[in-house]
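Feature request, filed as a ticket because there's no other form

It would be nice if the structure record came with a short human-readable summary line next to the tokens. Right now we just get the raw output. Example of a typical job, pasted below so the devs can see what we mean:
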Amino acid sequence: MHLDVLDLRNFYYRTQLGRAAQRAIRDRVVSMWPATGPQMTGQTVAGYGFAVPLLRPYLEPARRVIGLMPAEQGVMPWPAGMPNVSVLCDEARWPLETGRVDRLIVIHGLETSDNSEALMQECWRVLGPGGRALFIVPNRAGLWAPRETTPFGFGKPYTLGQLDQLARRSGFVPERHTGALYIPPSHRRFWLRSAAMWERLGTKAAGVLAAGVVMLEVSKQVHARHDSGLGARVRKPLSILEGAVKPATDPA
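Raw output as currently delivered:
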């Protein structure tokens, strides 16, 4: 079940709880993939689902930023006041060349997908060798997944183990994981004002189990085939035929 792009936009940009969630998740993403420095400079960065709130820090350093939104969700122009970089696509057929993307962020895409295996294969296809993806999904054990009053209460939530297994089956190599959204999904001012504190405490002490979302970073490793030397041996003339043109002198 895909969410409507207008509902996602209204939550993240027009509610205090949505802005707090956006800030909490984006801060964790940037801590893993810093926007400053050579790491992201000149990279192609893509986001799938409703990842555009997390892509803004990379607009300047990246060579290209692309916001992919599934057709069942709908699309909106982004970023505001700048040339549009968002595009509508089928969840298993993205308008990107194979191996084009260096960094990929998926949020509000995997848990609502009608075919998660096909979506993961498309993620694999567009990533270049050594490219990295960050999958962000509602935590099955967290406080946000049971609440349908936020976008994290829709679709299929995951445990870290389930997400790790899905990534491995799709050919990815899990690298590291973390969590975010340690505040309750409440609009009360007390929680909203103390959101930054709870994020710091949760990251240091609570671990992934208490997080509202699970974040798994994976890499695409393409192993080179080892040359056995068989081709060179086959191309070399067989010694048994060497005497066919000019017989060797009999030493006797």
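Something like this underneath would help us a lot:
Strands lie at 44-49, 64-70, 86-89, 101-107, 127-138, 173-180, 213-219.
Confidence is low (pLDDT under 50) at residues 237-242.
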